[in-house]
Amino acid sequence: MISKRYKALPQETRILKHDKIENLLKIIKKNCTAKFNESVDVHFRLNLKQKKSEANIRTILNLPVAKNKKVRVAVICEEEKLEEAKKSGADVIGSDDLIKNISAGKINFEKLVSTPKMMIKLGKLGKILGPKGLMPNPKLRTVTNDIIKSVKDIKSGQLEIKNDKDGNIALSIGNKNISDDNLIKNFNAVLDVISKEKPSGVKGNFIKSAFITSTMGISYKLKLNKSI
Q1: CA 147 to CA 132: how far, in whole Å?
Q2: What phi and psi values does residue 195 have, to the nearest 5 degrees?
Q3: Sign of the C-alpha dihedral, residues 124, 127, 128, 131?
Q4: N or C: at which end does the chain have fewer Cβ atoms within 10 angstroms?
Q5: In the chain, what are the domain boundaries?
Q6: C-alpha span between 148 and 121 (Å, rounded)
Q7: Closest Cα partner for 148 from 71, 68, 64, 75?
Q8: Diameter of the chain by CA atoms?
Q9: β-bridge mates for residue 210, sequence order
């Protein structure tokens, strides 16, 4: 069933042809009629063969302009590093006690940072943390001895970029209250990262298509300024 709010969207926006982000952002924001601060989301369809032997994209990016979202970060470390963890600004801090809480299903955080020494103990929690995307990963810099830097990066708008099983990437580049110029900066930063992650064996364009939308809005096809 089509909602009254959707029906009230401008008719001309529903048949708009693909265009550059500079032009589409104005329309996307006009469609943000929900009562909350909608996010501006982009979706990419990649030229990736989905076989276990093929490369997948999983990396991180510190957006030029941070999103307006608070992230609860947990740090698990050995006893001698607990004081450092307290100074990091993490919301949840612990050692073996935190491992026990996670084992019992008590997960009150959205990101988990671990020191390398504690990863041995965390390994047994893979079935709990893995499906939730919470298992610390060296590639995402969430397995580290530099706790303060890792927590700071996460809380300042660090974005995880990864493809799903169908070769798609979906992520938010900010909220509707962020200026168009800053949203474009974030979008271009995402494009640069995806470009650098292009596997050497991929022929032709790595990004097959791209779309932009808001949380409760209509999706529009993006015209990229350059082929990737």
Answers
A1: 22
A2: -60, -40
A3: positive
A4: N
A5: 16-67+158-221, 73-155
A6: 21
A7: 75
A8: 62
A9: 44
pLDDT band of 53, cuts 50, 70, 90: very low
- Mean of per-residue pLDDT scores for the chain: 88
Q: What is the mean pLDDT of residues 195-209?
A: 88
CATH fold group of domain 73-155: Rossmann fold (3.40.50)
- Quote the crossing angle between the two packed helices 180-196 and 21-30, to the nearest 10°: 130
Per the CB < 8 A criterion, the answer to whether 63 and 186 are in contact is: yes
Q: Is 171 helix (H, G, I), strand (E, B) or coil?
A: strand
Whole-number percent of the chain with pLDDT over 70? 89
| Nearest-angstrom CA–CA distance, 185 and 181 | 6
Taking domain 16-67+158-221, whether its CATH number is 3.40.1440.10 is answered by: no
Residue 49 clears pLDDT 60, i.e. is over it: yes
pLDDT, one tens digit per residue, over 61-115 is 989 988 767 889 999 999 999 999 999 999 999 999 999 999 999 999 999 999 9
Residue 120 near residue 95 (C-beta atoms within 8 A): no
Classify residue 19 by its DSSP letter.
B
Contact 134, 147 (CB under 8 A): no
Distance CA 213, CA 169 (A): 14
Return d(Cα 175, Cα 203) in angstroms, integer. Answer: 34
Q: For 1-23, how does the pLDDT look when each residue is reduced to its tens digit (9 = 90+)? A: 566 666 666 555 555 667 899 99
Q: How far is CA 155 from the centre of its chain?
A: 13
